[in-house]
Amino acid sequence: MGGEPLDWKVARRTIRCGPATLVMGILNVTPDSFSDGGRYLDPAAAAAHGLAMAAEGADLLDVGGESTRPGAPEVPVEEEIARTVPVVERLAREAGAPISIDTRKPAVAAAALAAGAAIVNDVTGAADPTMFEVVRDAGAGLVLMHMRGTPETMRELTDYRDVVGEVRDHLAARVEAAVSAGVPFECLAVDPGIGFAKDADQSLRLLRELPALAGIGRPIVVGPSRKSFIGHVLGGEAADRVEGTAAAVAWAAARGAHVVRVHDVRHMARVARMTDAIAGAGAAAALAPGARR
Ligand code: HH2
Question: Which residue ranges have their beta carbon within 6 Å of ligand 1?
Answer without folding.
Answer: 26, 28, 30, 33-35, 64, 67-69, 102, 121, 123, 143, 145, 191, 193-194, 221, 223, 261
